[in-house]
Every structure is written in C-alpha cells, then in structure tokens.
Amino acid sequence: MHKAIFELEPLTCPSCINNIEDTLNATKGIYSANVSFSSKMVETQFDETKIKAKEIEGVIRDLGYPVLSTK
Known about the structure:
Radius of gyration: 11 Å
Largest sheet: 4 strands, antiparallel
Low-confidence stretches: none
CATH topology: Alpha-Beta Plaits
Number of strands: 4
Order of helices and strands: EHEEHE
C-alpha cells in the first residue's frame, strides 16, 4: 500500500470535500481518501499496481480542483 498527499488550492465549501472523497473512495485501487478542509490536503492510500499517484492527481483535476503539489 502506498500513500500520497495532494495539496490543493483553498477549498470554498464543505461539499467540495464530499465530492473529492466520494469520487476517490469509489475509484478502483484507492483504499482511502481523506480531505482536510483547513490544510487543503487530500491524503490517499492506494494500491500502486492498480492506480498511480499521477492518475489520482488526474481524477482530482478532472473534478475541477487544481493540484498544487504531490508528496
């Protein structure tokens, strides 16, 4: 299991958190996704044989949330 943290631009509403978490948690290969509203971070745990961090970043971007950095 791998871990990646994505830094986002400031989120504007709590429904943004639900949108990101629900989509990522439903994505094949992702075990968990948690968004911190105050720190603008999305922490994920995933199976790298099924999905790569760059692909997760793409899912977040496709939802309309720019990713500033990945750790």
